Amino acid sequence: MNYILGIDLGTSSLKGVVFDQDGNFIGAKSSHYDVCNPQKGYSEQKPKFWIDAFEKVIEKLNRDFDLNENLIALSFSGQMHSLVLLDEEGRVLRDAILWNDVRTIDECKYIKNEFSDKLLEITNNIALEGFTLPKILWVKKYESEIFGKTHHILLPKDYLRYYLTGKYNMDYSDAAGTLLLDIENHEWSEEIVKKFGINRKLLPHLVNSTDFVGYVKKDLKLKYGFKKDVRVFTGCADNCASEIGSGIVGKYDTMLLSIGTSGVILNPEKKINRSYNGKLHFFNSIYKDTYYSMGVTLSAGQSLNWFRKSFSKKRKI
Q: Do residues 64 and 17 lie in contact, with contact meaning Cβ atoms separated by under 8 Å?
């Protein structure tokens, strides 16, 4: 029997869900990790947390479902916008700055003052603290030594996929949330990277969410005990995956409400919609020429998690 593994790299945990080739559910496991808040408004995570959690999930799935004997392919969904910086050798340079980090208020003001109308024209979004570009500018300004060593900019699921395959890629659904993507021409915007002094070579190759990008590396295949060559597919942003999983792709009179660490209302779109003027997020979906709009609150389930940690340390809620 052949198994397919879906990995969701979330903000508070990594989940692994196994199906057979006919789409029948086999089983699921998860592993939790912490968000670090070194200062007020800061939200960070060590990329090592994601690798450790992946290994724990693989161990659990191997034990209960013989994953290592049957796995032939895997793909991803993941938290959006969060910034991962790697050096020339692919080593992590600092903790990832997460999507719900709000330290970049000044950077957002700077972007709006310098480039607001043009940014909206190119990306169909406005500068907000959650997006990736303001985080890049913050590191560039306050951690110039780290930025000078940066050779690769990735998002969380793309880092885990790089760890497994050695390939640097990003899909359009996640690239749209960086404020660096020309949403109409489906390419990194030369105008944006030039304006803000970002070397285009730092950005990964763009691919569709369904693209095959490589195999799990031989050393990791041996480490995890996979008996078959495991094909790796790009995957997509977590909200894009929710759109697909809920079955609303192409149903333009339908909306999705999702409450996780954040709260989301999502609507599929037939084509690029310029009427929102940045009041809603607007991103590419599973393919580069499919889209969705989205309204978000940064803290939904995360607020409950904060309450539990702060006031209910000795009992579960």
A: no
